[in-house]
Amino acid sequence: MTSRRTRIRVLAGAAVLGSVSALAAPVSAAAGSHGGRAQGGAVVSVEQAADLTAREVAGELRGTFDSSQVRYGVTAYRVTYRTTDSTGAPTTASQLVVLPRNGTRHLSTVSWLHGTTVYRKDVASQDPKSDDRLTALLFASTGRAVSAPDYVGLGSGEGFHPYGDPGATVAASVDGLRAARTLAHREGRELKRNVQVSGFSQGGPATMLVGRALQQEGADRYFRLGALAPVSGPYHLSAFEAAAADDKIEKSGIYLAYFVTAWNRMYGLYTSPGDAFRAPYADEVEELFDGYHTTRQIVDSLPAASEDLFTEDFLNKIRKPDGVLKDKLRPMDNTCDWRPDVPVQIFHGRGDKDVDFTHATYCADQLTRNGAAPRLTDVGDHDHNGSLRQALPRIVRFFDESAKTG
Q: What is the pLDDT confidence band of residue 406, given thresholds at 50, 70 and 90?
């Protein structure tokens, strides 16, 4: 993708910050107003990743996603920006920002939040063929600006990925929107205030977290929540991890090992790997989830079943969490426990064997109890990744409708 008429423009260090500050005073003011994160969203570097005609976008999508909704060409950028990690400490993150080539100055904005990713290069800003890159191209080709953050610790960002941490997830996503606004401004474009938020798998609860932060928590002075469209998310995380402990989902051991090693780094779930993992895997499992090993390398090195990878005592702790694990799971069991003031459509497939359809009804029930009126759409008997392919055309239409009524 990047070979077609791609021109590279790298702006780094003080030169970038100096050029950005003159263009984006509103963004800097907003960043400085929330939680003392004065640099949140400040752009560190920009590199053009692709420049595609509408026909070329359709060609990239063909065979993976429905290309019938493509209307415009797009220009995509890799953007590195300042944000905070799971401890609240300053760090950098990367994202893909995509702008439509439609001649429109004022653009609607989509925040696209990706699913579980273990290898740091399997993200929208790095992999031209990833589903997340293609999803961002699709949304932009319908006339929207797209911010697709890689999250902390993935892409070219610093440190490790704090898998599922709510604070780092919101920070990277909201700061990504600020950085996207800065880039758009420099390109002579303006992003509208209302943000349509969507995400898949891990990005499902992330969608709800970011939506709540924008609507209720004053995450940004400029951006406002416009619509929510989560896809196939584990909204009841404690139940999801318990199902993984019981080997009720595909590749349970891999999912659970990623979760456990990441949360141990953040919250201290075990004293040594041998407390959680069986031999000989205890000696290598943490290194495998360092962000530099591919999914294939991990799958080839670890058993797929949790019962073969973990000690029985530790699996019991996952099945019936207490202490710090129970406390940290609680927010991730309640990402839907609020009342959005915008249209909400939840997408899920009944054929999903990774994240059961009951997670969608769980989210819808929480929203309904708070007085919201979510629309729950069953995309059919499709597997986890297939549910995304079925949902995306519907999300485009939903966002079109919600923009008219918002």
A: low
Give the global pTM. 0.90
Q: Are residues 151 and 256 in the same domain?
A: no
Burial code (b: 16+ CB inside 10 Å, e: under 16) for 114-153 equals bbbbbbbbbbbbbbeebbbbbbbbbbbbbbbbbbbbbbbb
To 5 degrees, how large is the angle CA 41–CA 345–CA 163?
Answer: 45
Neighbours of 89 (CB within 10 A): 8
d(CA 269, CA 260) in angstroms, rounded, equals 7
Q: 363 near 211, Cβ under 8 Å?
A: no
Q: Which amino acid is at 267?
A: Y
CA-based nearest residue to 373, from 395, 346, 335: 346
Beta strands across the sheet bearing 145-149: 43-52, 73-84, 90-101, 145-149, 106-113, 190-200, 224-231, 345-348, 375-378
Indicate whether 4 belongs to any domain: no
Instruction: Provide the residue type at 40 as one letter.
Output: G
Judgement on whether residues 21 and 139 belong to the same structural domain of the protein:
yes
Domain residues for 310? 237-332
How many helices (H) and strands (E) are present in the chain, helices listed first?
Answer: 15, 9
Q: Is the same domain home to 218 and 267? A: no
Q: For residue range 133-171, list pLDDT tens digits in order.
A: 999 999 999 999 999 999 999 999 999 999 999 999 999
Q: Are 379 and 391 in contact (CB under 8 A)?
A: yes
